[in-house]
Amino acid sequence: MRAVEHTVREGRFRRRRAELVYDDAGEGPLAVYAHGGFVSQAAEDRMGLFDWAPVLDAGQRLVRYDARAHGRSTGDPVDTDYTYPSLADDLLALLDHLRAAQPVDAMGASMGCATVLHAAVQAPDRFSRLVLLIPPTAWTTRKTHARDNREWAELIEREGVDAWLAAKRNQPRPTVLADVPELPPTPAARVLPSVLRGLALSDLPCPTAITALSRPSLILAWVDDPGHPLSTAETLARLLPHADLYVSRTRADIRTWGERIAQYLTRPRP
């Protein structure tokens, strides 16, 4: 049992026709976290993917938010609202809402990783350090993933969400996720095709823009996952001037990520 309990404060703000909901816990330097696509803060917690207790126990203020149309946040069926640059605008708006006067630490997984990278490219002075969890397909591996997203959007519109979920169940899961429960998507059925098409329109920032990012970065990746290929993480580690890459091959090792992130964020600030 944890030695320290942290009060969680719910907050909300409006941004481009949507209400975005976040949880704010702990005291100290601000760190923000953006989750992956189709889930939410609560869904990730139920899946047991990441443990944020070490970050809070290390003296960070942690703000985790539900992306547009995910979880408790609202959103419209507008494809361009769900591109990576648009989601990055939402993250920057969250920092404005929080009145973050100093650079913050930013963390993101999968879609959230892309959100953080785009936000850092748009406004590098707003960020101190980056923690990039399971970077998604990018550049050469993105084309196939984007095509699949477009086809899934059409499938949902023709046959409904259950048909998409059935198709996804036929795809092999990464070994490291074998014991992780599969949960239904949190975006509403009316919005899901737009989320998929928005992601299909997206890619990580161009390599030149990433190379220009001087912020220290921790990259956490796992293996055997076509949606989050190790090649993306390795390329990011080469492109970012100050990057550390850590790769997990077992579920037990992924459970150490919370401690690793806490240790990284409590290093002296750059």
Summarize the structure.
The protein is an alpha/beta fold.
Explain this structure to me?
38% of the residues lie in helices and 19% in strands. It has an eight-stranded mixed beta sheet, with helices on both faces. It has eleven helices and eight strands. Helix 5 (142-159) crosses helix 6 (161-169) and helix 5 packs antiparallel against helix 7. Helix 4 links the parallel strand 5 and strand 6. The longest helix has 18 residues, at 142-159. By secondary structure, the chain is an alpha/beta fold.
Following the backbone from N to C, one meets helices and strands in this order, namely EEEHHEHEHEHHHHEHEHH
Determine the strand fraction and express it as a percent band. Answer: 15-25%
Number of helices: 11
Secondary-structure content class: alpha/beta
What's the main sheet like?
A: 8 strands, mixed
Name the poorly predicted regions: none
Strands side by side in the biggest sheet: 1-2-4-3-5-6-7-8
Q: How are the SSEs ordered, and which strands pair?
A:
Blueprint: E1 8-15, E2 18-25, E3 30-34, H1 41-47, H2 53-57, E4 61-65, H3 84-97, E5 104-109, H4 111-122, E6 127-133, H5 142-159, H6 161-169, H7 192-200, H8 207-211, E7 217-222, H9 230-239, E8 243-248, H10 251-254, H11 257-265
Parallel strand pairs: 3-4, 3-5, 5-6, 6-7, 7-8
Antiparallel strand pairs: 1-2, 2-4
Helix pairs in contact: 3-4, 5-6, 5-7
